[in-house]
Automatic annotation (TrEMBL):
It comes from Streptomyces hebeiensis. This is Glutamate-1-semialdehyde 2,1-aminomutase. Gene3D superfamilies: Aspartate Aminotransferase, domain 1, Type I PLP-dependent aspartate aminotransferase-like (Major domain). InterPro entries: Aminotrans_3 (IPR005814), PyrdxlP-dep_Trfase (IPR015424), PyrdxlP-dep_Trfase_major (IPR015421), PyrdxlP-dep_Trfase_small (IPR015422). Keywords: Pyridoxal phosphate.
């Protein structure tokens, strides 16, 4: 077996840097999805810098990058309009003892972009926003339970959600019992859940449109990135009828589906919604938005009990809010959402053709909305396989493609897409050899990559 077959590719400086990271940071990263366990053994590049759609590791290798910043850097790294907006604010001070006028400007700009919301409050991360939405729903309804969509992987680092995952250590059982789950796309099952816990469920929280269907199997059913017609409207009706709050987690769909999120695209208005990721193009900003009567419960101009909604020292950092305003302006003026879809469509078609041409079209599967593509790696029996994922990622890295997903940024160009497809074709040729051998081990280079949520390290 030659070097090209095994995908020999060394990252000595990144390996040393990963050891430094693990010595001082639990898990070696500040997000579990960025951990080196998500990459082939000793092939987890540590990044030096990025520009546009490319990043460079500390070993000096350049990569075409997908899934930039876990979908947060949708315009590309160091985007000039965003950087200039941030730079203007840095010389004016970043945080004050009273609100800055930038806070009013940023809120007005957000509400003009997402007109289905009436008020907004900014924070620094998505978890704070979703937890604030849940707290607000509980306060408004007087109910204890939260219903989360079981088919969406993440909502918050807080106990009400993490307790439902395999990484539930440290979360009291009593807390776990207050969170129940419903399946995406199944209104009958959701209504049954609401009826079973009648007058107990404060809210339904879900990503409105990222689900791509059932897991692949011997006879996978077709999947779609869009909700079934009438599904979101049906949830709206169920929430109204059962007196609970409907919350859309738009961390991913916000700006990638449309500037106004999935709610703007599909025309169904939630009571509350949360945004982040693409909102700041890598700068730390998230948002909780929604109906005035609900949001005001966390304010000062109402007669009822006060709700401790969001109170964050850094939620009003002027440079992050300036970044958010620049992102929204850029999206609208430059048609970024349409560009993301066009790039994704080109990439998906190329990858599918490359996989089919190498005889692995049923094993390397691209799915999702064009602006939010993911891929599945299936074994000889067409079952999801971390071992085949390891082989595939290893070959992509060796070809200069850093792709935990195929989520595009607007900084990609046609040459980047074409180069990616070429590398995918090379990876698929090796994938075919592994399938023929019914064993990817010789091409894995070590232990398999691991799922983020698991009970043991």
């Amino acid at each position: 077996m030659d070097t090209e077959d095994t995908g020999e590719f060394l990252l000595p400086r990144s390996r040393a840097a990963n050891e430094r990271l693990h010595a001082v940071i639990p898990g070696g990263a500040h997000t579990y999805a960025k951990g080196d366990d998500q990459y082939p053994e000793d092939l987890a590049p540590v990044i030096s810098h990025g520009r546009g759609a490319h990043v460079w590791d500390v070993d000096g290798n350049r990569y075409i990058e997908y899934g930039s910043g876990l979908r947060s850097v949708s315009l590309g790294h160091a985007h000039p309009r965003v950087i200039e907006a941030v730079r203007r604010e840095l010389d004016r001070g970043g945080n004050f003892v009273r609100p800055s006028i930038v806070e009013a400007e940023a809120a007005e700009r957000f509400l003009a972009t997402v007109p289905t919301a009436e008020m907004v409050k900014f924070a620094k991360n998505g978890s704070d926003a979703t937890t604030a939405a849940v707290r607000l729903a509980r306060a408004a309804t007087g109910r204890p339970r939260v219903a989360v969509c079981a088919d969406h992987p993440f909502f918050s680092v807080d106990d009400w959600f993490i307790g439902t995952t395999p990484m539930s250590a440290g979360v009291p059982a009593a807390t776990n019992e207050l969170t129940v789950a419903f399946p995406y796309g199944d209104l009958a099952a959701t209504e049954e859940l609401l009826s079973r816990h009648r007058d107990e469920i404060a809210c339904l929280i879900l990503e409105p449109a990222t689900h791509t269907g059932p897991p692949p199997g011997p006879r996978p059913r077709p999947s779609t990135p869009d909700p079934t017609p009438g599904y979101l409207a049906g949830l709206r009706e169920l929430a109204d009828r059962h007196g609970c709050v409907l919350i859309f987690d738009e961390m991913i769909t916000g700006f990638r589906w449309s500037e106004a999120g999935a709610q703007g695209l599909y025309g169904v208005v939630p009571d509350l919604s949360t945004f982040g990721k693409a909102l700041g193009n890598g700068f730390a900003v998230s948002a909780l938005a929604g109906r005035r009567d609900l949001m005001e419960r966390g304010g000062l101009r109402h007669p009822g009990d006060r709700v401790f909604l969001l109170s964050t020292t850094h939620g009003a950092e002027t440079h992050s809010l300036a970044a958010a305003m620049a992102v929204q302006t850029t999206y609208v003026e430059e048609g970024v959402t349409a560009r993301l879809h066009a790039l994704g469509e080109r990439l998906a078609a190329g990858v599918r053709d490359a996989a089919a041409s190498m005889g692995v079209g049923d094993h390397v599967v691209v799915r999702g909305r064009a602006s939010n593509l993911v891929f599945a790696t299936l074994d000889e029996n067409r079952r999801p396989s971390q071992r085949y994922r390891t082989l595939f990622l290893r070959r992509l890295l060796a070809g200069g493609v850093l792709a935990p997903s195929f989520v595009v940024s607007g900084a990609l160009d046609d040459a980047d897409i074409d180069r990616t497809v070429d590398v995918v074709a090379q990876a698929c040729a090796v994938y075919r050899k592994a399938l023929d051998a019914a064993d990817p081990t010789p091409w894995m280079g070590g232990r398999p990559v691991k799922p983020v949520f698991r009970r043991l390290a």
